[in-house]
Amino acid sequence: MVAFVFITCIAQFLSLSALNQTVAPVMVLAKHFHIEDYGSLSWFSASFSMSVGTFILPAGRLGDMYGHKRIYLVGWMWFAAWSFISGFCYTSGIIFFSICRALQGIGPALLIPNAVALIGRTLPLGQQRMIGFACFGACGPLGAAVGAVFAALLADTAWWPWSFWILAIVCLIVMALAFVILPDDIPSVSEDAGSQRPYFDYWGTITGVTGLILINFALNQAPLVTWANPYIGTLLGVGFLFMVAFILVELYGTDYPLIPIRGLQMDAIFALTCIILGWGSHGIWAYYLYLFLEHLRGHSALLASAETSPVALTGVLFAFSTVWLISRYGVSHIIFISMTLFMVGALLLATMPLHQTYWAQTFVSVIIMPGAMNLSYPAANILLSSALPKEKQGIAASLVSTMVNYSIACGLGIAGTIDRYTIEAEARRRGWTPEDGNPLPLSDNSARAQEIRLVGLKNALWFAVALGVAGMAVAAMFIVTERRQKKTSQK
């Protein structure tokens, strides 16, 4: 069991490590690619999260159809190939690097839902399965911390592409181990399918993936070109139309939906909504924390990674406490606690003075934020895994992981817009009129520029606080609804 849990949980570990490949050395990348705005920098991380969140939808279904182990192995091969290619982007520009990061993210999209599905299908319902999900959740902050330190160490002391090439080698090693360790699984076939070969939801995949990509692209491109550019609003509108089409297809156009909308109970909807709000807040918190430490406080990438490394320890502690907490208090209360931690973690950064000791608000925020991550993610997975049958464990895993990763990408896009427009307004208020259209080039480190930049960063973090508050409100409704259902069933 130990080998099985290790080989499935390492997917979460390396996926979060890969996300932080461009978060920790953010200012090193800005210098290498001659980037002068936060919006371009955020694309390196947002494109990765966008692909993970978008392509998880069909990846989970493919695992249900053709075997989770098979798709899991394909995911490692893809992850290795595009990590290797991404390392060579030092010779290219930011557009090609962002595209390679997006393609790299398809690897974790194939890995994560099928790893979770393997846990859900292999481990029996009860404590063993909850421990498996807790281990999987613990690998999130642990992988993020290790990935940040590793990427920062190579960026500061050697060369940043090495983090991608080494990751590629590790992926190939893990693929070989997974081939040996994982048991062979039989593809799931719905009992009412009427045939030996299950049906893939092509129209749902086309409409869903297209809609998600267009919406996310519009949200993350807007901070660069502003919302005044007509194609931003057009792409956003077309993206929402595709999502409406996706919902209609899932409801009426297929017998094998990517998302069983009709089968989702109210508690699952509450949990997924909280995941969207909470993890959207978390993505903003993580990205702007590194910008705050490296660009405003002037810390090196390695020092900033060391300052955020406590997430590894507290993340593991919170993840394993989830098993006991859920059995004692229930999923709805645990999700409410996690939403509160999302809010408090962002609030500490939003109110943090620029020149303050690390051991005050920064340290406290870093300590508690893993609690938000590792209480919400396992709790939602446990709820969805228990709610859906064995042959739909890939779908259950896809739902949670899609919401986690896609909300990170969308949250960064919206926060980037808030940051951009705040900086413009603050610069105009102070009588600053830039000639090139960039309200505040990153190379300008004057005291006046830092003051203006701090205002924009804090407003982006206040948006993260608002998302956390909204998550708390939804979680509170979840608790009230659950109590009413229990009273009704007892009558």
TrEMBL record:
The keyword Membrane applies. It is found in: Membrane. InterPro entries: MFS, MFS_dom, MFS_trans_sf. The keyword Transmembrane helix applies. It is a multi-pass membrane protein. The chain crosses the membrane at residues 40-59, 71-96, 131-153, 159-182, 202-219, 231-249, 269-290, 334-352, 358-384, 396-418, 460-481. One of its GO terms (molecular function) is transmembrane transporter activity. It holds the Pfam family MFS_1. Keywords: Membrane, Signal, Transmembrane, Transmembrane helix. Coiled coil: none annotated. Residues 1-18 form the signal peptide. GO terms for cellular component: membrane. Residues 1-484 form the Major facilitator superfamily (MFS) profile domain. This is Major facilitator superfamily domain-containing protein. It comes from Massariosphaeria phaeospora.
